[in-house]
Amino acid sequence: MLRARRIALIFPLIAGCLYSCTSEAIKVGDGEIEKPLQDVAGVRREDLASAQSKLDAQGPGSPGLTLPDLYALAVDRTERLAIKQEKVIQAESDRNRAVGSWIPSLSFRETRLGTLPDHKDEDRERRQRNQLAAIALNNPALATTTTSSSLPPNLSTGRRLVLHVPIFTGLKEYAGIEGSRALIDQRKYELLHDAGRLYLELAQDFYNVLVLERSLKTRTELLSLSRQNVDQLDRFVALGRVKRTEALQARSTVAKLEADVQAVQDNLTRSREALSLSSGVRPDALFADAEPLAAPSLSRLQAEDIAESRADVMAARATLEVSKASLTQAQGEFAPSFYVDGYYNLPRHNVPRNRDIIAQFTFEFPIFSGGSSIAGITKAESEKRTAQLTYDLLKRQALLEIRQAFDAWESSRLQIAAYKKALDAAELNYGAQLDYYNRRLGTIVDLLAALTTLASARDDYQKALLQERLNRVWVGVATGELPVRRKNQETVADKDHSKETAK
User: 341 vs 111, 165, 345, 356, 359, CA distance in Å?
Assistant: First the structure.
């Protein structure tokens, strides 16, 4: 009995060990960055604290939130990465369940048999007659109550401990363990990839807001100057210095500027709401651009060489491994299985103790399953082919995205110089038109047209600057450089890339 208790204690310890291998869950908006997110998102508690302090202290003259600040707040406040982490936990639970199905299991079983009609009274009378006959004939053997039964232990009545030991089950459990391990890798790579996508999408919303804010400021200033000039037109028309048609045309220009300002304001409101949804900050938060990023740490050719080690590609490769394990499981339906069940009967009142441990050996060989096994193999083979095609497709898509990101970044750098020349020319033209107007050599319409051209050139130049920074972020995310992770923390993709390099 002591040995049985020791055996019974082993199984909870194994279960506890498996449960402790499960990753930590993520709580949204608790002001803490759990370790799984620190590893894949590169956000530490001090980063979140700094961003939160900026958000709390916002007001006139206070520093605005930068893109890294928004990312830190989004990692803590949004559900996106938390959902991916829950899928990692689910995959680890599947792994633990697969391991548990291969480990011997111990259970308590109580079996009672019943018949129709019930023969309990007849059995009791028979036992009483046997006891009387034993006394009359002085033969105690006639009254002996047997404790054995011709029924197998899994059908006989009584209370017992049952130990189930799987020995060989057609590699189904082994394939399940391998598939669950690959599924864990897949979920972790998906979490790693989604952290980069979150950073890129935040950057798109962030720089869109900055573009609209600067455009609104430029157009508002232009509208104010235009209104001041138009207010003088009525007096000039009365003095005969300006034609009435020029005044009407100027007022039309001002009306169009007012419509443009309102349209930019509406777009800015919607963009702020979108950024609020993706980052978790309030829509009226103040934003500020940080210093521009340095040149990429990898050249175009180096980035293309590591395209296959991107997180999304590695997730597709892990999916392929999962499909291979599923195929092995399906094929294992045709393999024989062999397992052992051990039974230990617990003592009962008025029944002699039976300390024997009964072992039941079972060998099963599948013969016919109605075609379900063949259908399972056909489906698993199709899923494997689909996973292979998806993996090949994602490799090409990753390479294409890296090339497109570098092309866009390099093109935007050239556009900045071109738009700067256009801005300088617009400033010179406005200065000349202002001089002509002051010397009565030009009209107010010409001056307003030059002012509008200057505002448009300034808008284009500001957009080019911010687009270059957005494209630089795109290059960083496409190559795995962004978000910046802790240097002392080796991520899943880094480990796999190191293995490939070693090979």
Answer: 16, 6, 13, 14, 6
**Residue 66 to residues 45, 54, 119, 286, 473, Cα–Cα distance (Å):** 17, 10, 84, 9, 13
DSSP string of 215-244, one letter each residue: HHHHHHHHHHHHHHHHHTHHHHHHHTSS-H
Length in residues, the chain: 503
What's the total number of domains in the chain? Answer: 1
Does the model's pTM come out above 0.85? no
Burial class (CB in 10 A: 0-12, 13-18, 19+), 461: buried
Residue 326 belongs to what domain range?
2-112+131-502
Of 357 and 416, the one with more pLDDT: 416
Residue 253 covered by a domain: yes
Amino acid identity at 129: R
CA 64 to each of CA 54, 55, 60, 268, 288: distance values in angstroms, whole numbers, following the listed order? 7, 8, 10, 17, 5
Give pLDDT tens digits for 60-97. Answer: 888 899 999 999 999 999 999 999 999 999 999 999 99
Does residue 124 lie in a domain region?
Answer: no
pLDDT of residue 497: 47
User: What are the pLDDT digits (tens) for 178-224?
Assistant: 999 999 999 999 999 999 999 999 999 999 999 999 999 999 999 99
Q: What's the CA gap between 290 and 10, in Å, rounded?
A: 57
CATH number at residue 83: 1.20.1600.10
Kindly state whether residue 118 falls inside one of the protein's structural domains: no
DSSP state of 485: P
Handedness of CA 270, 272, 276, 282 (dihedral sign): negative
Residue 335 lies in a domain: yes
Neighbour count for residue 144 (Cβ, 10 Å): 11
